[in-house]
């Protein structure tokens, strides 16, 4: 015969086993779920039970993923950082593109000036051209272009040929149109002053923005 107390103990044991089983497994899915979400987000720091050689009181509470919204915020922060980096690179590339465009424009002008200077040097001339002098370009009925030291004003109404323009021969054998002579002479004067004072300039190893703020 089975006594009542023994049945009660068996029943109590089964109840304890039933209640203990969920308690033993409740924490496992929660931690594994958090680790799974952290793994999907990427960019999470690996767990260390002894960070810096110091044992943690509760590694679970220290390393757990916590609120899933934290992972969303982390992903948004990474995305925002990517957008800022892309915008910053775009701005720098835009500046470089503008500089390239400016250099291309300067190169085009250099080629045009070189072609003009070459054509002027091939114009007919019965004298030795000297740098610093102004010469006047005329065109005959035959199409020949030639240089003369006589200006249209000096010719007056008896100018025999079509006047094409006046040019000053620079010391680098380049030609400056008459309307640009004053501006070009001012630039050359400034460069001459800088070259004459270069020996007295102190050596400077750091950037100097003097004169840019005034």
Secondary structure: elements and pairs:
Elements: H1 4-41, H2 59-63, H3 68-121, E1 134-139, E2 145-148, H4 152-155, E3 162-169, E4 175-177, H5 181-197
Antiparallel strand pairs: 1-2, 1-3, 3-4
InterPro entries: DUF2452
Protein name: Chromosome 1 open reading frame 50
Region (Disordered): 1-41
Task: Describe this structure as you would to a colleague.
It is elongated, with a radius of gyration of 44 Å. The N and C termini lie far apart (112 Å). Helices cover 55% and strands 10% of the residues. The longest helix is centred in the middle third of the chain and has 54 residues. By secondary structure, the protein is α+β, with helices and mostly antiparallel strands. Helix 1 packs parallel to helix 3. A four-stranded antiparallel beta sheet has the order 2-1-3-4, with helices on one face. A hairpin with a 5-residue loop joins strand 1 and strand 2. This is Chromosome 1 open reading frame 50. It comes from Prolemur simus (Greater bamboo lemur).
Mean pLDDT over the residues = 76
User: What's the overall geometry?
Assistant: elongated
Order of helices and strands: HHHEEHEEH
The Rg value, from CA coordinates, equals: 44 Å
Helix coverage percent: 55-70%
Strand order of the largest sheet: 2-1-3-4
| Major β-sheet annotation | 4 strands, antiparallel
The total count of strands amounts to 4
Distance N terminus to C terminus? 112 Å
Q: Which range does the strand content fall in?
A: 5-15%
Keywords: Coiled coil
Region (Disordered): 1-41
Pfam family, one: DUF2452
Organism: Prolemur simus (Greater bamboo lemur)
């Amino acid at each position: 015969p089975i006594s009542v107390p023994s049945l009660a103990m068996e029943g109590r044991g089964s109840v304890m086993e039933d209640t203990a089983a969920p308690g033993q497994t409740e924490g496992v899915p929660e931690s594994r779920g958090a680790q799974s979400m952290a793994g999907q987000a990427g960019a999470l720091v690996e767990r260390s039970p002894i960070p810096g050689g110091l044992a943690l009181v509760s590694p679970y509470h220290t390393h757990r993923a916590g609120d899933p919204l934290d992972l969303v915020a982390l992903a948004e922060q990474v995305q925002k950082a990517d957008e800022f980096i892309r915008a910053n690179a775009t701005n720098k590339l835009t500046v470089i593109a503008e500089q390239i465009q400016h250099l291309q424009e300067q190169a085009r002008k250099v080629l045009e000036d070189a072609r003009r200077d070459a054509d002027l040097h091939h114009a007919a001339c019965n004298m030795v051209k000297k740098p610093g002098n102004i010469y006047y370009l005329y065109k005959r009925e035959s199409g020949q272009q030639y240089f003369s030291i006589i200006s249209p004003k000096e010719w007056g109404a008896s100018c025999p040929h079509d006047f094409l323009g006046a040019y000053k021969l620079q010391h680098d054998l380049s030609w400056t149109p008459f309307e640009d002579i004053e501006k070009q002479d001012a630039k050359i004067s400034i460069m001459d002053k800088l070259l004459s004072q270069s020996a007295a300039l102190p050596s400077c190893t750091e950037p100097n923005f003097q004169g840019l703020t005034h």
